[in-house]
């Protein structure tokens, strides 16, 4: 038991510090559980090799994998973006209508498409709504993330956390979640949470991003942008842009070359520099001074706005924000090691990481999930970034490449995936048998399938109908999520089998001497919310559910009520930007600080803790 607690502590430290990616941490946990529980040595964890790897074959893991693919199929049709644009058409410049559009689209849709890709799809849509409607994106992006969490609690498939919690509930209580098990409470949470965001929440949000979009001023990079003229006797005359500056010695980039009133932007790596060329540099003052002192360049001026960095001949924007999602090849890499510039003919002017704006020595900084890069690139490079699942470009492409003709197929497939799970076919068969005398019960009952089966069938249907191409299946899966689930599921098993859950349950159950059962349930909700704020929501479910069930058993309460409280708390993590991936998606584009999530999320978390606990008592009872 002590060893298991030690592994849990190690996992928590690694999750919080991000010394290792979360999926690698999960695999490390799996390895430790198996090594310390292997046959032939002292069995500290009581986890065999078969149990240690069972997370890969677990129904929750495979179901989440299938749902990620289905969500990708829906997004490739453009249906979510189309709905978002139609809602924005009525929003105009009215903030209340913009909030209603944002919440009204992201909330309900997240009940049927995994909420993480929904936010990834809608970040550029909502950003464009804000800028066109003369509103700061900061007023809309946190509401987008939070509303997607509300919507994720409408159905079993709204979030991977629900699917995992259902699997754990089935193992502990023999009570998996049905498709609409908690929809009635989810609707209440959606309505109450939406009302909060519409009335109080947005007033607590500062306008971190200026209403008028100007990235140069927003990222405060004016002093890092300089215009210089190449001297006649400069040693860089005759060299290419790519080789003109020694990046080992100088932290600088050539962004543009201006020659005879003609402006050149990326790709300019192979363009030869001539005497008299005007170069627009990204470099700090010390670096520029060194160039001038060496008589390499002559100082000319500094661009002060984004417009000065965008050639008049190019109508499309050349400065864009790019969010790094989970699963991107950039995560854990630096700009130098990832060869980002060479791959996309793009230059990073600055980036935001966990609320910090980085403008110097960017090449060696490790990039993390949720980091937002300010990128300058040619329009075709921006389009390539937009079409790559490794990035979320925070504005919509002018001519999006959607498979809109496949919308009916995709919608029908998702309806089938949900319908075959949700419809009580046995009851329908019994009714038919009573009305017609035909023994239809057995046939209709056979149609009732688990979500695992219908989701995998949906994947096949997506490919068969052309909604997805076969090669796109693998790109659609967030493999770090899959490895995270596979790695932490055995940790929950070890917590149960070693008696760790019993011990923790006994400690929490002691509060029953001072609190009513409803109070203990509320404590579990708050504790889960706090833990989820610093580690993965899926990890918090695995750790908290066994303890919650054991606590309920010891105080004579309804264990399913405790399962629901933990599930809702883990799936609605508002307090920090790192507790839930959708918060990371909006962190950079919204220009938020860590405290913004606390300011808006803490009152919301308290409000929903009361609403959720009372709702569980009303619908399911706690005793």
From TrEMBL:
Keywords: Membrane, Repeat, Transmembrane, Transmembrane helix, Transport. Residues 213-297, 307-391 form the RCK C-terminal domain. One of its GO terms (molecular function) is monoatomic cation transmembrane transporter activity. One of its GO terms (biological process) is potassium ion transport. InterPro entries: Cit_transptr-like_dom, DASS-Related_Transporters, RCK_C, RCK_C_sf. It is found in: Membrane. GO terms for cellular component: plasma membrane. It is a multi-pass membrane protein. The chain crosses the membrane at residues 7-36, 56-79, 140-165, 185-205, 411-441, 447-468, 477-495, 515-548, 560-580, 600-620. Its main location: membrane. SUPFAM superfamilies: TrkA C-terminal domain-like (SSF116726). The keyword Transport applies. PANTHER family: BASIC AMINO ACID ANTIPORTER YFCC-RELATED. This is SLC13 family permease. It comes from Haloterrigena salifodinae.
